[in-house]
Amino acid sequence: MLDDLRYRLRAVFRRRAVERELDEELRFHLDHQRDKYLAGGMTPDEAARRVRLDFGTTDAIKEDCRDARGVRAVDEVIRNLRYARRSLAKRPGFTIVATLTLALGIGASSAVFSALNAVALRPLPFPDADQLLLISQYEPGAAHASNFVAPSRLEDWQRMTGAFQGLSGYYLDDMTETSGEFPERISRAWVAPRFFEVCGVAPSIGRAFTRDEERFGGPPAAMVSERFWKRRFGGEATMARRTLRLGERAVPIVGVMPATFAFPNSDVDVWSVSAPDAPYAQSRQSTWFTVIGRLRQNATTDQGLSDLARVQRNLGQQYPATDGKLAIRVTPLKAATVGGVTRSLWMLFAAVSLLLLVACTNIAALLLARNAERRHEIAIRYSLGASRASIVRQLLTEAIVLALVGSALGLGIAVGALQAFRSLGTGLPRMTEVRLDWTLVLYSLACGAVSVIVFGLLPSMRTARSHDVGTTRRTHTIATNRLQWTLVAIQVALSVTLLFGAALFVRSFDRLIRICPGFDATRVVTFRITGNWGETADMAALKHRILTTLESLRATPGVVAAATAVALPGVSFQFNTELRIVEAPTETSRKITARNRFVSSGYFDALAIPVLRGSPCSDDPPVQTAVINRAFESLYLSGHSAPGSHVQEIASGRNAVIVGVAGDAREQGLNEPPAPTIYWCASAPNPMPVFLVRTHADDPATMTETIRRAVHQIEPGRAVYEMRPLAERLEDTLAENRLRTVLLSSFALTAVSLAAVGLYGTLSYIVSIRRREIGVRIAMGALRRTTMVLFLKQGIAVTIAGCVAGLWLSAAAGRGLSGMLYGVTALDPSTFAMVIGIMIAVGALASIWPAARAARVDPIQVLREE
Amino acid sequence: MGSERLDLPQGTLDLLILRTLAPGPLHGWAISERIQQVSREVLQVPQGSLYPALHRLERRGWISPQWGVSDNRRKAKYYALTRKGQKQLAAETHSWRKLIGAVGLILDMD
After folding, report:
1. Residues in contact with A200: Cβ distance below 8 Å, sequence separation at least 6, in sequence order
2. Interface residue A22 vs chain B (CB under 8 A)
3. What is the ipTM metric for this complex?
């Protein structure tokens, strides 16, 4: 078996050498034979004649030898390939159009697939990543509760669980590095014990934290990212006792995490231990960890949930005050990371697959027309004894060559498209993991293979059948035409579907960006200044620091207003709270829920949100103040004078006096209508609030350097980071929406152009084969205009047939889009009408040219050609 | 070229080639000459099928080719019996004899 394989491989790959050897062997034989005859007394001529007589033609023997070598199939393939190359080269126009069409289809499809694969299909870059869960606590029925977990509770879970291999947690904090001109912010993750074990990733250099280091008062230690290691220490391969200066302390670096490890996020450069046995971590109400857990082998998410729920019930009995009401929620870490993008990607993948189908159908129609021109040649091959199978193989080879070249070019296009993808998709999860890899190459090839089946097999079989009807040529032509028209109608139908989807997204996106958000994002720069949670120990100092910074910002030339807030306006921030109005009689008071926002003085100026009544937040009020929005006022305070009323937050018991009423703003996201909102006036709600600075500059980006210097002057030890115009940030929140709108539109436009090309090509072909008939008609007195209309009608009729099928498809597809649209319904009739209008116009345009050519046929010339 | 000459029965050429190569490697021409000589000119190898047969045997791994120099100092392709070929030869010889014996029995019956 192995000998056989080796032999055949040599016969295939060393074909020339093998042939040469055979030549030599046969010549040797002939010479010997001749010598023998000469020795027997024949004349040289006679000997030569005898030898030829004995031997027959050497060609036949060689052919038999090749057969014996078992390489005839390979020979046929090689011959077919050569033939395909010749025949493709003979029609460069067709070849180029077909290859580019296919490359476009495969390229787009591969690019989307690669994103889908990287984001939704591939597991997170952890070993056995499907065992990882994100775990949070919540209070059922309570609008406001911290989802973060207390360190002591986390340790209880770890101790009592039966379904998890381990549980750990983290929170994020800032560090400031001061070696450069401006201080640089370094993101640090504080991690609970067992963090790296739960993730399942080991350091690439050095080691993870020891149990000792994970204890309070244990030896100090830090782990750093590979990026940080390279930047700071040139990426040496040994640890050599490097240290990290953190304030006064020098902390030894014990390990370097590989570049692929980007958890909790890709910004994190340093991991430090947050010891659960520290004295300040003992309260069951100081909650700060985001918890992750690794399930035991074979345990399901549901088992994990019920196990932790049991553990928490026990804890509730043990600590009724703090744990009694808490329940557990688990989410697979991947779902938590990737979120809703998956749906968009699947939608895009479906769309791009339709595009590929349009491309294949297009090429099928082109091939069909082209093969029809070769009927004559194929008939001759049949009469020379070729089998049907061998002709199908020969025609198919051409399709395979097209598909291979198309796949290769498509791969190139895909690689380029990935670049565009990454830049369009900033802000989407896992986009950095989208890259060229083997799956992508294989996928492109698979696309090519599927394409061959779709566009190659049908025309090849159809053409190879033609000899059956060689005598009744006309029947055949009509049958081919019908098939071709069907293919064109399919293209139109698929294009209508894509166009409809794209139109819905474009309209929805248009609505979204035209929304008046209730605040003005232009001319506003946002940034943060490094701080750390340790500062919350001295709230007065923290408040002083932030107010000083705000003051000096306001004093900077070009700055109109400056403020801080916990969250960016227009960006989703899940923080509901339950309130009561102190003045309202308790028995009649209804449940009040509102969105929490924490803002400093100047916030309403910075965002140009009008204050309708009362006054905005001020810098240093003697009592806690708050501002409510109009939705809050009209829903909960009708009849009261809002300014001057007191509200109390039920969960915390915190009181505030309402000082003003502001206009409604879409704080929660552009696609969310304004909800009742309470703005708690707080300059320093946390150590790293968002700074919002309204400038005079039309392009606020020009102010960034000025602002950076202004901050640096009063805070030389702190870094400014995430500095970007607010408008840009808001655009990022639309990244997913924009990505799918842009991509779907480009797919739809490509599909429509392909359908137009298909229609044009098919009609042109039909005009060309009916030239004679047209010539006769015109000679018999048919009007040229009638002739033109005849063909125009044919083109438009097929377009309309395609549109009808497309409408039906669109209605089906629209249902899948419903959740992704804003401001239009999935079956929007005006969009339907617009799409049909566009498609028919395109169909008519594509038909006019061939129809006009039909009308210009010169009967005399046609008759002369006959 | 006596009138005694016979055509080779189907399938025997492979066996004859293998047997001819049993004493040692030969090139194609010598194989056909040897078969002719040993059979006292009764068996004539059809020239057209010798080389395809050699290539087929080579593919099956029963004979292996090597380039050598012939008596008249020309490069020639010699074929040698492989171990697999030897086994094959033994097996085929056995079944051939059995066949001859059986055919003989039938021809000799009364």
Report:
1. A126, A127, A128, A294
2. yes
3. 0.86
